[in-house]
Amino acid sequence: QQPVQSPQAVILREGEDAVINCSSSKALYSVHWYRQKHGEAPVFLMILLKGGEQKGHDKISASFNEKKQQSSLYLTASQLSYSGTYFCGTEQGGSEKLVFGKGTKLTVNP
Amino acid sequence: DTEVTQTPKHLVMGMTNKKSLKCEQHMGHRAMYWYKQKAKKPPELMFVYSYEKLSINESVPSRFSPECPNSSLLNLHLHALQPEDSALYLCASSQVPAATYEQYFGPGTRLTVT
User: Fold this and answer.
1) What are the distances in angstroms from CA A30 to CA A23, A71, A97?
2) Per the CB < 8 Å rule, is A42 touching B105?
3) Chain mean pLDDT for chain A
4) Is A47 close to B100, i.e. CB distance below 8 A?
5) Three-state DSSP class for residue A71
6) Contacts of residue B108 in chain A, CB cutoff 8 Å?
7) Which residues contact B75 (CB under 8 A, 6 or more apart)?
8) What is the gyration radius of the CA atoms in chain A, in angstroms?
9) Chain Cα centroid distance, residue B74
């Protein structure tokens, strides 16, 4: 089942903060976050696992509320390089299959 | 080296042609994936290979035929495609076939079916 991301799009000025949310109607085993710039491949940002473990970049932070089946990605002091489309991918059954949300387009302006 | 390579970068083919997409990784990863991505849409899983065996086929039409000749190489054979199959085809790999490991994506092959 496809997770729901919000907002669909956000425009920031450099230095501002943003939060991107990802929610599912089913219990989640893991949540992945990827960023894709136009014309490029998705790039891994972070994994959040049931039980609290996280793996990812030091400059990116995220949360995973297992009870609410939600995850949030926190982008602080945004830089121009943060622009792109952010996808969350969720996995529900302990398999290798990820289902991606529709994406959140982030634009950071000078 | 965390690179996944894909060839060709662009491919234009007619509906009667047979072509193949190639994906390669040298990270020792034991899971490899094919995704299809339409413009402004998320990647959609097509196939998963776990330890060189096909483990997931997301009900993909038989005109797409995956092959994993060895642990570093993944092919996608294309035959009798339709114009609606035009898309970006992404290959990805992960250390092991489990969603607790990050996936590394290749740059993709942009396919146009005429």
Assistant:
1) 12, 10, 11
2) yes
3) 91
4) yes
5) strand
6) 41
7) B20, B21, B22, B23, B66, B67, B68, B69
8) 13
9) 7
Instruction: State the nearest Cα–Cα gap between B88 and chain A, in angstroms.
Output: 10
Hunting for tokens 């830089």 — which residue is that? A79
Structure tokens at B20: 């193949």
DSSP tag of A14: T
Q: Does A4 contact chain B (CB < 8 Å)?
A: no
The b-or-e profile of B4-24 (16+ CB within 10 A means b, else e) is: bebeeeebebeeeeebebbbb
| Tens-digit pLDDT profile for residues A30-65 | 999 999 999 899 999 999 988 877 777 767 899 999
**Do B107 and A40 make contact, defined as CB atoms within 8 angstroms?**
yes
Q: Where are the beta strands (DSSP E) in B4-63?
A: 4-7, 10-13, 18-25, 31-37, 44-50, 53-57
B69: its two tokens: 């000749």
Pairing, β A18-23 against β A9-13 = unpaired
Q: Are A108 and A78 in contact (CB under 8 A)?
A: yes
N-to-C CA span, chain A: 37
Alpha-carbon span A8 to B6, nearest angstrom: 30
Distance (Å, whole) CA B109 – CA B111 = 6
Query: Strands across the sheet with A70-75, in order?
Result: A4-6, A18-23, A70-75, A61-65
pLDDT tens, residue by residue, B72-93: 999 999 999 999 999 999 999 9
